[in-house]
């Protein structure tokens, strides 16, 4: 049940003036009703609809849905409320980049329909609106009527208890408008409360549903089985009646009837008495059994509505629990994915570090090999230089040795006359000892020959005293 209790809504314009959209309206809409909201542009119809969907909040008064005050409820609960409301707009509001199926499925995801049953639900509502073969089409490929049917299917996807339609036939031709209204009527027969804001007078007149007319923010008419406009009742000002209140029954020539064929009271019809009609109006006291039957029917209908409401609430709670479970599963899956991604990132980082370390080790080894090769090359060059210098030193030494040998030979040549002279002097001075002097000379000659054979470069100087000390002794 929807209840408006003395609802006021005021807007402030850009020039700081207040505009009253709703001025204390009050009414009730029972569960399962079909209601038209009509009125001129700017009369407050759209504001009334927005108060139902919580798009607007009253400045005064309250709006109740199933005895729950939605006027001052937390904004966090608005999505929960809207899961019970299906909204249909004049401009369709379809997502052009999504297919028909995806548009409806997207709305189902937003209201928390489980993914495992979402596809089946979308197929079901598409079948209901007669667009099962258009599931893969895009909005631009559809006609206006087909797009509105998609919008109705989107509103039905969450099996709402209330359907709010704002000018659903405003952009459609009369034939398509009738099919849309027939579809809304079928939804209403399924138990949903349908509220339609419209300017289509022909449809309102033909459907004969409850009409709430608003003018300047006030309800000026709220009547069941009414039309778009209330016909004015014409009375003859000259006829005062027959002592009773004129109940609108014309006597005599009634302008509504132009011939006998247009009027029939059925009394002269063939078989009239064989057509008993159960009276809905009783004169006097209404029979008790009729009252009891009506009471039981009302109680049964009320019990059925209550059971349906409870079932819908349970379904909504179950869907919400499933949505929470799905969100929790998604959160856990996300955490697991983040953990795995982090481990993979760490593993890749370690592998990169290992590759960098191996590359560094390879470069270090290459550098060590290069240095070793350079040292080996330098050592070879040093060895060659040392060998060259050794060869030069050996050659110099050999040359020096040769020079020394030549010098010694020359020295030997100078020393030989001296020996001979001394020997001659000894031979002269010591004539008596001539044999011994000859012996000494022979020994010296043999010594010189031996030394020359042995190629001894150094010749020791022979002193006179070393030749034969016995000679001095003989002189003495």
What would you note in describing this structure?
The longest helix has about 140 residues, at about 290-430. Helix 3 (about 100-110) packs parallel to helix 5. The chain has a 6-stranded mixed sheet with strand order 6-7-8-3-9-10, sandwiched between helices. Strands 2-1-4-5 form a 4-stranded antiparallel sheet, covered by helices on one side. It has 11 helices and 10 strands. Residues about 240-285 and about 470-475 have low confidence and may be disordered. With about 475 residues, it is α/β, with parallel strands linked by helices.
Q: Tell me the strand percentage band.
A: 5-15%
How would you sum up the global shape?
Answer: rod-shaped
End-to-end C-alpha gap: 178 Å
Q: Strand-and-helix sequence, N→C?
A: EEEHEEHEHHHEHEHEEHHHH
What is the averaged pLDDT score?
A: 79
Q: In terms of per-residue confidence, which ranges show pLDDT below 50 for 5 or more consecutive residues?
A: 239-284, 471-476
Percent of residues in helices comes to 40-55%
The largest beta-sheet arranges its strands as: 6-7-8-3-9-10
User: How would you classify the helix and strand content by structural class?
Assistant: alpha/beta
Count of individual helical segments: 11
What's the number of extended β-strand segments? 10
The main sheet comes to: 6 strands, mixed
The gyration radius over C-alpha positions equals 66 Å
Describe the structure using short key phrases.
single chain, 476 residues, alpha/beta, 6-stranded mixed beta sheet
């Amino acid at each position: 049940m929807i209840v408006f209790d003395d609802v006021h809504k005021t807007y402030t314009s850009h020039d700081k003036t207040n505009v009253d959209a709703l001025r204390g309206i009050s009414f009730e809409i029972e569960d399962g009703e079909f209601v038209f909201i009509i009125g001129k542009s700017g009369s407050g119809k759209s504001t009334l609809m927005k108060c139902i969907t919580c798009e607007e909040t009253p400045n005064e008064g309250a709006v109740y849905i199933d005895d729950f005050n939605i006027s001052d409820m937390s904004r966090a609960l608005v999505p929960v409320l809207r899961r019970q409301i299906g909204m249909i707009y004049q401009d369709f509001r379809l997502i052009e980049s999504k297919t028909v199926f995806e548009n409806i499925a997207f709305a189902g995801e937003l209201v928390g329909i489980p993914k495992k049953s979402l596809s089946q639900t979308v197929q079901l509502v598409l079948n209901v609106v007669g667009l099962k073969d258009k599931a893969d089409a895009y909005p631009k490929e559809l006609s206006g009527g087909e797009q509105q049917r998609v919008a109705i299917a989107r509103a039905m996807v969450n099996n709402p208890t209330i359907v709010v339609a704002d000018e659903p036939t405003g952009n459609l031709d009369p034939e398509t408008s009738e099919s849309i209204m027939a579809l809304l009527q079928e939804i209403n027969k399924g138990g949903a409360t349908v509220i339609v804001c419209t300017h289509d007078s022909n449809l309102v007149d033909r459907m004969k549903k409850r009409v709430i007319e608003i003018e300047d923010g006030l309800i000026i008419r709220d009547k069941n089985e009414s039309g778009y406009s209330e016909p004015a009742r014409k009375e003859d000002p000259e006829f005062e009646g027959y002592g009773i209140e004129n109940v609108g029954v014309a006597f005599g020539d009634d302008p509504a009837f132009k011939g006998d064929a247009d009027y029939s009271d059925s009394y002269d019809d063939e078989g009239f008495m064989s057509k008993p009609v159960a009276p809905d109006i009783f004169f006097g006291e209404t029979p008790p059994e009729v009252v009891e039957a009506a009471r039981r029917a009302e109680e049964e209908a009320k019990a059925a509505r209550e059971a349906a409401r409870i079932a819908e609430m349970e379904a909504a709670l179950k869907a919400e629990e499933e949505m929470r479970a799905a969100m929790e599963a998604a959160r856990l899956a996300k955490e697991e994915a983040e953990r795995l991604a982090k481990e993979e990132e760490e593993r890749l980082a370690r592998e990169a570090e290992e590759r960098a370390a191996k590359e560094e080790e390879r470069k270090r080894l290459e550098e060590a090999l290069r240095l070793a090769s350079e040292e080996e090359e330098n050592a070879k060059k040093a060895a060659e230089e040392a060998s060259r210098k050794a060869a030069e030193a050996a050659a110099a030494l050999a040359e020096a040795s040769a020079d020394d040998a030549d010098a010694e030979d020359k020295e030997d040549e100078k020393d030989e006359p001296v020996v001979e002279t001394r020997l001659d002097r000894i031979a002269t001075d010591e004539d008596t000892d001539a044999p011994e002097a000859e012996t000494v000379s022979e020994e010296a000659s043999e010594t010189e020959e031996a030394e020359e054979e042995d190629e001894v470069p150094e010749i020791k100087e022979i002193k006179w005293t070393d030749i034969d000390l016995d000679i001095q002794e003989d002189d003495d």
